[in-house]
Amino acid sequence: MVTGECSSGTIRTTFAAVPHRGTVFAAKATLVAAVMYVLTLLSCSTAYVVGDATLPEGRYAQGDPLPALFGIAASFAVAAVLGLAVGTLVRHSAGAVTTVIGLLVLPSLFGPLFGNAERWIAGLSPTAALEKLTQTSDAAADTVGSLGPWPSLLLVAAGTAGVSLAALLLRRRDV
Description:
- By secondary structure, this protein is mainly alpha-helical.
- The chain is 74% helix and 0% strand.
- The longest helix has 34 residues, at 21-54.
- The chain is globular.
């Protein structure tokens, strides 16, 4: 949404049409979040229905699907906005993808190296919020923190908002 415009130079045309750069970022963030939320909600709902129909009755424990499906869709929307914000800051596709993957994976990967602090480090990861929302058995309190799924998602959203605010440095940078 941003890095392609920056590399081709069409971002100049965008900013000529809408000089308020914060408005451009907000419009892009809204579009990315809405599209990702709807696609994820439809995909996860379909996967849940198919899984429920194909798995044997009573063999696997099932959680409550409705709040989890909405939370998973919100988690993916937040990750998409994080990608947009990092892309706005970095202005290079490969650098933005690498940074976002690092932000998503590294806390869970390196968390065990920190002993008792693992639950705090891994718990800050967007993937930890996703594990808690999907009610996976990997989401034990000692590995991804004792914060619940919704507060964990709010923490990730707050971090994304912080990166998005930093991306508004775009106002002061040349195009």
